[in-house]
From TrEMBL, chains A, B:
GO terms for molecular function: hydrolase activity. This is Acetyl-CoA hydrolase/transferase family protein. InterPro entries: AcetylCoA_hyd_C, AcetylCoA_hyd_C_sf, ActCoA_hydro, ActCoA_hydro_N, NagB/RpiA_transferase-like, Succinate_CoA_transferase. The keyword RNA-binding does not apply. Belongs to the acetyl-CoA hydrolase/transferase family.
Length: 498, 498
């Protein structure tokens, strides 16, 4: 069955077991693997690596597109394989190791990793491990459910291991659009001016002789863990849709809005689902990950085209979408994450970026990554790629967490991923703050009045009033600015009296 | 004399006094004025406005390119004319009013103001006031020593006042390259692929009937206040040049480096001066402001071409450069700040961005704007436009300030303008920290070992060691993180014991 998928027949003698292929990865190597938002990761070789590390010392620097599925980061962490990891992860075991200082994690804007590789500012991968549905007659690699950084990893690495995954339908071929920016100083503009432009090839073009191993596997992607909308996420979606209506009424957007980007996760997914019953038509997406909501919107006749870097679906949606891919294929494209997230394209297209905040402060600075200013959750991902250059940089979160012990709106965030300069709109289930054109004191008023949970509003008003009395463009009382986080850490509630 | 400069003769009947022109500006209006880094600002009309405000209520929202010279922001502030001000300023009187909450200041990435206007996310200027050396036969405006936001302001405003400044030599004509991105959703790539590309027109194209007043004045630009290099700035320059040499040796840059961007001010100017005696050749600049050092480098045969948005020179340099402009003209271009700072172009060209930090922390987060987390200095300016997408994002500062009462390297910055994700290289006179590809704990080690003044090194090591014991990807002790700033505020020294 896999033999039909290796269409350059001279490569068939490279087929070997995962253990044999994994043996090509040596202690101390830098390895680039496919995988983005738990979609399309190489599965057999990393598993074999984790096994091997039980017998012999094996520490590598691992770079991927984004997060891996199938508990691979967990297995690699437990086996002690990961010395360094970039640019994103979502695994709870790896997270613990990162926060313990055992794995050096480099948290990057997702569009930047391969740019830094291209310029030799990061060590190039010695070897790349790429999941594929097929290898073409020319020896080019056809990716599966994600492109991520796979193309550049395969181009930069001296050796490439291909995992042919027969669990993926071969009809994925044709979905991908592989475009790699040319080298500086003679780089030309990225010739993409519409979300549905195709500017590259459908397979990753590398010299066939770089393919040193082919491993066959049949392990499917992990299903998405996105939760269905609840009252709060529905509330957030409603506020945002009302805002979009006002923007359309004011003539600032057309009724098809701008190309939509939605971060991964339940809140952003709920917001996108909310568009199904909205008055907007002919929507488009220019995003990283295409989730259930993308296909719900296509089915509802609302979404005309979706560009992403990966497809990550729930169990419910998975068989239906991939079993009927022909229904969607002319409405989809998967691009390298450098292109799906590229600042040049994001600014040109005028994207509406919707991403999740861990917390934000009264001036609109957003923390996307660090609990209590210290503990990494997942990473900044693509949120910065989009927010900086978006037509609208929107951040969403529930107003409280942990049963009300935590307010998502605080006097000063404990870590900044997106500065006040880059944040246009903040939304919680309480309401929406439009920060465009406002000075910090005005931003604080808008945020406190619109986004804060009632149980925290008085306290934030007190802080803000007292800070204003002391003056400053961005009034703060430094002695109290992080007190809410300290209270939480020491007493379990942000407003616990000391 | 001015009559030759108004080459569309039908416009000559629009010539009037500054008071008459200023009367077109009504209370409550939004006004867009030329001016960028104290170069090419309209001078007569704002002065007349400040006078008029002594007689009658007059409050406006003022947007410019960047900072104004000739004490105009001071005069407008003292007269109470400024209700709102964006996107940048450097005036001490205005700064006080901003920090007192009397003027609402919107601190923006300099590439973004006109983008937000174009999309009607900011209120369009009712009227624009643009300094010019001439008006062409078609009624187009030839700017003076800056382009800044002038072109878009003139295009967006219903009415335009032109100040013909006869103190500027008419040979400035031809220096400018006015390109305005097309509207979304059909925007095309910015067709600029080399620093010396010319992609627009030499004058600002507006319908002549929008010119409602022409005012003649002869007030020169204010001279630059940049200080000559001192031991510390020379030390910073030396560290950076040594680093560039290592980058060239490692094959990561050619001997002409990449296009250089240098922020305004004495440190960046000193760094650029340091290149005169360096081994690098055929240098280019793609920057905002061209300072003395630009012309020193051209004279030294080191700099092949400089692209900027303004020219701001010291008294020493001013007469020489503008008196001999033909010597430089084929090596210079002035662009709208949207283009000089555009993320698309910055990423494409691979710019080396050198900007000044107010302070940075052990993890590489940079504060460019807020003293003690509250008081605005000037604004973020273009530093974010460049740092985010630069080939190298470099921030420079002296390691201590106020006679050693302040360390420029702190446990946690009191305000974040550039996050750890966007900062590659930090330099003080003590040394240089190369943060590329490092995890936070590694960044801290590199910064403390290389950039910190010896009088603060032990204290930072103690903080970092204690924080690491508590764990976290980015270890912090929240209760102590801002203690240095609190000490400074309350006791005048960052390490003063409580």
């Amino acid at each position: 069955m896999y033999r039909d998928r290796v269409r350059m027949s001279s490569l068939l003698d490279k087929v070997m077991t995962a253990d044999q292929a994994a043996a090509l990865i040596k202690d101390g190597m830098t390895v680039g693997m496919s995988g983005f938002t738990r979609a399309g990761e190489a599965k057999a070789v990393p598993k074999a690596l984790a096994q091997r590390a039980k017998q012999e010392p094996l520490r590598i620097s691992l770079m991927t597109g984004a997060s891996l599925g199938n508990d691979l980061d967990k297995q690699l962490t437990e086996a002690g394989v990961l010395a360094r990891r970039m640019p994103f992860q979502v695994d709870s075991t790896l997270r613990k190791a990162i926060n313990a200082g055992e794995v050096m994690f480099i948290d990057q804007h997702l569009s930047e990793t391969v740019e830094q590789l291209r310029n030799h500012q990061l060590k190039l991968p010695d070897i790349a491990v790429i999941e594929a549905v097929a290898i073409t007659e020319e020896g080019h690699i056809v990716p599966t459910t994600s492109v991520g950084n796979s193309a550049s990893f395969a181009i930069f690495a001296k050796q490439v291991i291909v995992e042919i995954n027969v669990a993926h339908n071969t009809n994925l071929e044709g979905l991908h659009d592989i475009y790699i920016p040319t080298y500086r100083p003679t780089r030309t503009p990225i010739p993409l001016t519409k979300v549905d432009d195709r500017i590259g090839s459908t397979a990753i073009p590398i010299p066939a002789e770089k393919i040193v191993a082919i491993v066959v596997n049949d392990q499917p992607d992990s299903p998405s863990t996105v939760l269905p909308p609840d009252d709060e996420t529905q509330g957030i979606a409603n506020h945002l849709i009302d805002f979009f209506k006002r923007e359309v009424d004011a003539g600032r957007m057309s009724n098809s809005l701008g190309p939509l980007q939605a971060g991964i996760g339940s809140i952003a997914n709920a917001v996108m689902c909310g568009l199904i019953d909205s008055p907007f038509e002919n929507l488009t997406m220019y995003s990283e990950v295409l989730q259930d909501s993308t296909f719900d919107l296509i089915d509802a006749g609302k979404l005309r085209f979706a560009s992403g870097s990966s497809i990550t679906l729930s169990t419910r949606r998975n068989a239906d979408v991939f079993g009927n891919l022909e229904r969607y294929k002319d409405k989809l494209v998967l691009r390298p994450q450098e292109i799906s997230n590229h600042p040049e394209v994001v600014r040109r297209l005028g994207i509406i970026g919707i991403n999740t905040a861990l917390e934000f402060d009264i001036y609109g600075n957003v923390n996307s990554t660090h609990v209590g200013g210290t503990k990494m959750m997942n990473g900044i991902g693509g949120s910065g790629d989009f927010a900086r250059n978006a037509h609208l940089a929107i951040f969403v979160t529930k107003s409280i967490a942990k049963g009300g012990n935590i307010s998502s709106v605080v006097p000063m965030v404990s870590h900044v991923d997106h500065t006040e300069h880059d944040v246009d709109i903040l939304v919680t289930e309480i309401g929406l703050a439009d920060l465009r054109g406002l000075a910090p004191r005005e931003r604080a008023r808008a945020i406190i009045d619109n986004c804060v949970h009632p149980s925290y509003r008085d306290a934030l008003n007190s802080y803000f009033d007292a800070a204003c009395k002391r003056g400053g463009h961005t009034p703060h009382i430094l002695r109290e600015a992080l007190e809410w986080h300290i209270n939480l850490e020491e007493r379990g509630h942000m407003l616990a009296a000391s």
